[in-house]
Structures are given as structure tokens and as C-alpha cells.
Amino acid sequence: MRNFIFQQDLAPAHAAKSTKDWFTKKQLEVLAWLANSPDLNVIENLWAIVKRKIRDRKPTTLDQLKQNIATAWEAVSAETCDKLVKSMPRRLQAVIQAKGAATKY
Description:
globular, Tc1-like transposase DDE domain-containing protein, mainly alpha, single chain, 55% helix
């Protein structure tokens, strides 16, 4: 089995007792995250890319919205994902230099 540490922010659903119990039951390690920590999760950048791709579309049904999101998500290249993941050392260094304050990321 591949070793990993699960990362999540402190959104209320993530901090709920039932969520914590689920991680404990599954024996999954969760990265300790302070309440005011910068959001370094690259998925946020991917969601921003998807949002930009669907911004001008005006779906009128839930099915159209789902299709727009799926099409935009499929258009995000593996290269883009790879670049975001490889940017983590720079992101972490920027947070360290900013002493935990906001960065360009």
C-alpha cells in the first residue's frame, strides 16, 4: 500500500466529529492544519482553472452545468496538474519567507 498523508482545510465538514471518526476508523493520517494557515492545496488552483473555463457559459439545467464542469475538467491537461504539484516547494518557501502570511499563491 502506498503511504500518504491526507490534507484538508478546516472547513466545518472536515472538522466534524463524524469526519474525524471516519479517518480514525480507516487509520488514515491527516496533516495537522492550523485555522489560519495559507491554503496550499493545489486542487484550489485546479478548481479556479475549471471555473474560468465555464465562467461565460450559462447553463439552464443541472445536467448542463454538470456537462460544462466535466468538459472543463477534461480540458485541464496532465501537464498543468504536474506543474502545480511541482510548484509545491516554491509555495512552501514563499510561506516560510512570509512567516505564514499571504503569498502570491
